[in-house]
Amino acid sequence: MVGCIRVVVVLLSSGWILCASAQELKIGLSAEPSAMDPHFHNLTPNNSLLKHVFDRVTEQDENQALRPGLAASWRAVNETTWEFKFRAGVKFTDGSDFTANDVIYTFCRVPRVENSPSSLAINVRAVAAMSAPDPLTLVITTEKPYPLLPNEISTIGILSGKANGAGEVTFDRQECKGVGTYPKTEAFNAGQAAIGTGPFKLVRFTKGDRIILERNEGYWGERPVWQRVVFRPITSPGPRVAALLSGDVDLIENVPIQDLQAIASNADFKVVQGLSNRIIYLHFNYLDDATPGVDGSGGKNPFRDKRVREAIALSIDRDAIVARIMGGVAMAAGELLPPVMFGANKDAKPLQPDVERARQLLAEAGYANGLSLVLSTPNDRYVNDALIAQAVAQMLTRIGLKVTIDAMTQSQFFAKRNRREFGFWLAGWASDTGEMSSPLKSLLATPNKDKGMGPTNPGGYSNGRLDDLLERALATVDDGQRATLLAQASRIGMDDYGTIPLHFEMTTWAFRKSLSYTPRADQYTQAALVKRAP
After folding, report:
1. What is the DSSP pairing of strand 500-512 with strand 269-284?
2. Backbone torsions φ then ψ of 103, nearest 5 degrees
3. Contact (CB, 8 A) for 292 and 421
4. Does residue 14 surpass a pLDDT of 60?
5. How far is residue 490's CA from residue 495's CA, in Å, rounded to a whole number?
6. What is the rounded distance in angstroms from the CA atom of residue 46 to the CA atom of residue 185?
7. pLDDT tens-digit series, residues 193-221
8. Would you call 354 helix, strand, or coil by DSSP?
9. CA distance linking residue 31 with residue 80, whole number of Å
10. How far from 121 is each of 3, 170, 502, CA to CA, in Å?
11. How far apart, in whole angstroms, are the C-alpha atoms of residue 417 and residue 334?
12. Quick count: other Cβ atoms within 10 Å of Cβ 137?
């Protein structure tokens, strides 16, 4: 135990002994990452944790404004060419130098990750060519103007090409040259491939138990306070709070609403909260004639009828959900991004319930006698997700819809959703770029693998007008014009009830009074940003 301060010996179930000290931070997670592969699953728990190990070319601050990352600067050479200048002296945790070749290698791998439940390929799709004039310069070419490139690549964790057996890499959309054999996700989970330039390095990933990181002593940026960080997935709210109060952990995320006041009034702890960009929404299966979970429709898919979707939207009292289910720690939503963010409609208002109009719409659609539906939902992913689904189901009974809840763990939910086993489901989405193109591209754009559109639209919603406006926005350099086009596209999707927004989560953190943490719009819990309170 040499070198520890205020030693506490902790015997793990695995038999390992840890030395807990004043330089150790213990964090209780509300959701567990599915893998240590930074490109495997575009999911907030994964993205949040893996930022500790893998830096990005560009980074985002707590408000999702872009700031320098591995790239100290970047510029648009012309409408289709970007130049990135990298920091000198950056090293991977194996001691090798970071160069532009590692970025090219990384971008080659992202679309080729096996069995990815939600790929990050959408954020490198615009890249048509890449080259490295020198080790610290990267030139990226797009086929058409693509002003969001610096934003989108802020989501991609950079790997070491050398550590993974690559040589000098030549980028090619079809098949890059010089990459060797890409590491499999299992190699990251085992730690073998988890070599990054971030503030921490992976020591151990024990699924269902804990993730242990140690400070990267050779980190190029600000040195983290903590020599060791232990993340414990405690997905049940009660045990997570108990772990904080008992001192088993120092900080927890997503404080249960019913416990917020009690913790905030406890002099030993602090609570902070902030509006996130995570939208909780309802979505539909448009593709299957025999729609899963639907009965009483006469063999038709009722969700293809806009009147049915509008009726469902009008039956929901969003303010009641925010007040009663979310304890006021949420904001009712009128579209897929808060109105203060880029590309959102500033005047978007949450739809107000109108039960009589909803009944009328159902009757006009041929369902005066109602329908039986199954609403699928995770029960351990979003704040009070299963309770929200139950509230929605109760509200739908007012217009003659009989709704059964099918709640399951997030791992089951995402796998079944991607296999299109649901007809009607509740889920959440956080804009990883902090602007409207993210939810539009993923949730409402017509699915098209070649274009990278609709990766989280398994129900197959499609609207040509929305697609056209979105594609025009993505190629518009002028910020004002692009924001207008994105807002117009969003308005079309909302007016068509392609997906039904419910509310935006407020994210909460609670921690010992000796610590401080600034809330983040992306909901990420970043150990390097947890400080000792002044």
Report:
1. antiparallel
2. -70, -45
3. yes
4. no
5. 9
6. 13
7. 999 999 999 999 999 999 999 999 999 99
8. coil
9. 39
10. 44, 18, 28
11. 24
12. 15
